[in-house]
Design a protein that fits this description.
It is a single chain. By secondary structure, the chain is of the alpha/beta class. It has a five-stranded mixed β-sheet, with helices on both faces. A hairpin with a 2-residue loop joins strand 6 and strand 7. Helix 1 crosses helix 2. The longest helix is centred in the C-terminal third of the chain and has 28 residues. The chain is globular and about 60 Å long. The two termini are 25 Å apart.
């Protein structure tokens, strides 16, 4: 039983794999102040609801872009599962090259997504991850991470608009029926939603032109499904991309020859 933890700036995903399939998944808000004991209380109840317990967990892999939380996630694995966790970017085998000027700057989430996409789709790829930031990762045909474009995430843009403009309310993100809004809320929804569609279409087109090859485009992340059917620039919507990548990294690491 593998416990996979994928922590982004906004949400943290916990998932359990039994060797054949993912048997449970839970998502919580990321809180960098949460202690190992607090994580344990949260997980204990969820594991029990799925017919599992701490003793069921035989291994743990962690991907985190929140350095302040990593210490407590490590302690969670050590104290409650009695395991030294595998941490992406630390003691794991990626099996891909990172062909950017400063490889250490590549976030764990981007590395995991690149691997998850490469093992499922052929050819050079653009992986769009819609989270706190919206990232456009270029993955070569051999699986290497070759570069990225990073934009503010759609939720971050909505929050910034609300905080910076006194008369603009906080809105829910949804696809509006019309581009021309007839009131403040519909006008904001149109600008945000269709503005992001425009961002996606322009960057995908420009990346493909600069790369010089046809590239398949894979979308994942918390709000990626919002854009399904809104643009023909995205070939596949894949909500399981990150978990697939984490599982692949774990399998590569445990099967690698020991020094």
């Amino acid at each position: 039983m593998l416990l996979a933890i994928e922590q982004g700036n906004t949400n943290t995903l916990f998932a359990v794999h039994d060797g054949e399939t993912w048997v449970a998944q839970w998502r919580a808000s990321t809180d960098s102040t949460k202690t190992a004991d607090e994580y344990a209380v949260y997980l204990y109840q969820l594991l029990q609801m799925s017919g599992l317990d701490f003793k069921s967990i035989t291994d743990c892999i962690i991907s985190s872009v929140v350095p302040q939380s990593l210490f407590n996630l490590r302690k969670l694995a050590q104290r409650y599962f009695h395991k030294q966790p595998y941490v992406v970017g630390d003691n794991t085998v990626l099996g891909i090259e990172v062909r950017i000027d400063k490889p250490k700057e590549a976030g764990a989430d981007r590395l995991v997504n690149a691997i998850g996409a490469h093992i499922a789709y052929s050819g050079p790829l653009i992986v769009i991850d819609s989270g706190t930031a919206t990232t456009f990762d270029v993955v070569a045909a051999d699986g290497a991470l070759e570069g990225t474009a990073i934009a503010p995430g759609i939720n971050l843009s909505v929050q910034a608009l609300h905080l910076a403009a006194a008369k603009l309310p906080r809105i829910a993100i949804e696809r509006p029926a019309h581009i021309i809004g007839k009131d403040t809320v519909s006008a904001m929804q149109s600008g945000i939603f269709w503005g992001y569609v425009g961002l996606i279409e322009y960057l995908v087109t420009s990346i493909q032109a600069e790369y010089g090859q046809k590239m398949s485009v894979i979308a994942t992340g918390g709000v990626a499904s919002l854009f399904e059917g809104a643009t023909d620039k995205i070939d596949h919507f894949d909500p399981d991309l990150t978990l697939r990548g984490l599982l692949e990294i774990y399998q590569r690491t445990v099967s690698a020859p020991k020094a």
